[in-house]
Amino acid sequence: MRLILGSASPRRKEILAGLGIVPDVITAADIDETPRKGELPRPYCERVTRAKLDAIAAEPQDIVLVADTTVALGRRILGKPESAAQAAEFLLKLAGRRHQVITSVALRRGETHWARTQVTAVKMKRLSDDELNGYLASGEWQGKAGGYAIQGRGGAFIPWIQGSYTGVMGLPAAETAQLLRAAGLRWE
């Protein structure tokens, strides 16, 4: 049995390592992550996660683990910004408000599937022009849902969360460990 992590995210690999788990294979799923017209954040996140799971080839005894993280401001999906200008737009929308970070995790072993979705409420403080411009200049926003990384410099903007810190990073540790045990993975 091999554990296949269907993600190129260094954060997901790091969270697994924190649990004492090292994937045997790491491969990213190449799928279209464009939201459908009128699609709500949680169903979107769950659909993308399932598409990633379906896109990873594996032997029947292998365990495939995938996840997707979405930042939701009400009914609006804030994906990965394509430019610094879009990152600024996202951060200004989030500043001074609460939002949700939704992370869906799915596993497959043979024909059996497991899935969990973890939702965390996050409050971002109001941002000064200097804070916003400094963050944009750091480049940390690149490749991050909502345009920020809680585990990096963006953590200075987050005074409060209710839910899973690792879920906001991209892989809820408790839920992931539970699913991996259900799929038969054992580790020290």
Task: Give a description of the structure.
With 188 residues, the chain is α/β, with parallel strands linked by helices. The chain has a single domain (3-182), classed as Maf protein, CATH 3.90.950. It has 6 helices and 7 strands.
List the helices and strands and how they pair.
Blueprint: E1 3-5, H1 10-18, E2 25-26, H2 41-55, E3 63-73, E4 76-78, H3 84-94, E5 98-109, E6 112-123, H4 129-138, E7 160-162, H5 165-169, H6 173-182
Parallel strand pairs: 1-2, 1-3
Antiparallel strand pairs: 3-4, 3-5, 5-6, 6-7
Share in helix:
25-40%
Computed over alpha carbons, the radius of gyration is 17 Å
So what's the overall shape? globular
Instruction: From the 3D structure, determine the CATH topology.
Output: Maf protein
CATH first level: Alpha Beta
Give the tally of β-strands. Answer: 7
- Major pleated sheet: 7 strands, mixed
Structural class: alpha/beta
Q: Give the H and E element order.
A: EHEHEEHEEHEHH
Q: N- to C-terminal separation?
A: 16 Å
* Average pLDDT taken over every residue: 96
